Automatic annotation (TrEMBL):
Pfam families: HTH_18. Residues 169-266 form the HTH araC/xylS-type domain. It comes from Pseudaquabacterium terrae. Keywords: DNA-binding, Transcription, Transcription regulation. Signal peptide: none annotated. This is Helix-turn-helix transcriptional regulator.
């Protein structure tokens, strides 16, 4: 694992492992993780379609097989366990929720392969504006716009294969606005105007994930983005509705393969 330069703590110098140094930005249906010093992470699985692009060199991934494969760009399907190694280089991770229109297109196009390699020419075209904007320390809004543009270009003009049931879409939007508060399945079901049992089954059918698991996914993304924007990890955990920072850490390890403290704000 790549290591951050020693950090002095009193009379004792400690070496802290680093999973990446950069920025994490969210929008409705997706997120951008961009930075340098990307290290090796633990085996994990998450809800979103993952698009990983090398900014300056290749990276490695492996799924169920023991062998690592080198990539300049790759797409990982939701809920597939995998491991990533940035080899200390600069990378872009784009996470697209499968409920979003481009996520549904990507899911349909690449569902047969857990980890799909992207051709080098496509990667170069997608990454060029992001690399330049990151090097120029562009505003968050600029990076988000470029990230969404890259996702749209990769998805192409194909229409999404059926939209998410509007009742589920409404409940997801409602949840996303209230992550700092206690939320129950019954609350979300009421927003969707469904009984709790009907809502539970419809949510899984439409998203491929349980309501509770989706809530944890939404909370961990929000917490990471808040911490990378300047909050302490404790405050970020509370902001996203976690009971404490330990709960956030466990969830982050399971969904991203990293301890939150190994992410360093650029």
């Amino acid at each position: 694992m790549d290591m951050h330069p020693p950090i002095e703590t009193g009379a004792t110098a400690s070496r802290r492992p680093v999973a990446g140094v950069g920025r994490v930005l969210l929008w409705s249906g997706g997120s951008l993780w961009i930075g340098r010093q990307a290290g090796r992470v633990e085996r994990h699985a998450h809800h979103a379609v993952q698009i990983t692009l090398a900014l300056d060199a290749s990276f490695r991934m492996r799924g169920d097989a023991a062998d690592w494969h080198e990539h300049h760009g790759a797409i990982v399907m939701p809920h597939h366990a995998h491991q990533f190694d940035g080899c200390g280089h600069a990378v872009v991770h784009l996470f697209v929720e499968p409920e979003a229109a481009p996520g549904r297109v990507l899911l349909q196009r690449h569902a047969s392969t857990a980890i799909a390699d992207l051709p080098r020419d496509i990667v170069d075209a997608l990454v060029r504006p992001l690399r330049h904007a990151h090097a120029q320390r562009a505003h968050d809004e600029t990076l988000v716009a470029l990230a969404r543009q890259a996702i749209a270009e990769l998805a192409g003009p194909a229409p999404a294969p059926g939209s998410v049931d509007p009742r589920i879409g409404r409940s997801i939007a409602w949840v996303r606005q209230r992550l700092d508060a206690p939320l129950s399945l019954a609350d979300a079901a009421a927003v969707a105007h469904l009984s709790p049992s009907r809502f539970r089954h419809l949510f899984v059918a439409q998203t491929g994930i349980s309501f509770r698991a989706y809530l944890l996914w939404a909370r961990v993304e929000t917490a990471v983005a808040a911490a990378m924007a300047g909050q302490s990890w404790t405050a970020a955990a509370q902001h996203a509705g976690f009971a404490d920072s330990a709960h956030l850490s466990r969830t982050c390890r399971r969904m991203f393969g990293i301890a939150p403290a190994t992410l360093v704000r650029e």
